[in-house]
Amino acid sequence: MADRRAWRPIIFSCPTTGDRVQALLPGEASESLADNLYSISCAACDGIHFINLRTDAVVDPKRS
Ligand SMILES: [Zn+2]
């Protein structure tokens, strides 16, 4: 059920392959999401990346 959510496309650089990948993010950041991180499956490396919904930046949990 995503009727109240507007999805927006973004382009990010895969931190594993360096490729540019298109993904969809929920239109609004949610206070219920810890640190506003959204997990997406990456088409370039088949992995999972976390996107900060406020900055649209890829977050690498291994680096803090
Ligand atoms: Zn990737």
Short description:
The protein has strands at residues 7-13, 20-26, 37-41, 48-52, 58-59. With 64 residues, it is mainly β.
What number is the mean pLDDT?
83
- Give the end-to-end Cα distance, rounded to a whole number of Å: 33 Å
Beta-strand share of residues: 35-45%
Q: Could you estimate the helical fraction of the residues in percent? A: under 10%
Number of helices: 0
Shape: globular
Largest sheet: 3 strands, antiparallel
The helix/strand order is EEEEE
Number of domains: 1
The total strand number stands at 5
Overall structural class, as computed from helix and strand content, comes to mainly beta
Low-confidence spans? none
List of distinct ligands in this structure? zinc ion
**If strands are numbered along the chain, what order do they take across the biggest sheet?**
3-4-5
CA gyration radius, whole angstroms = 12 Å
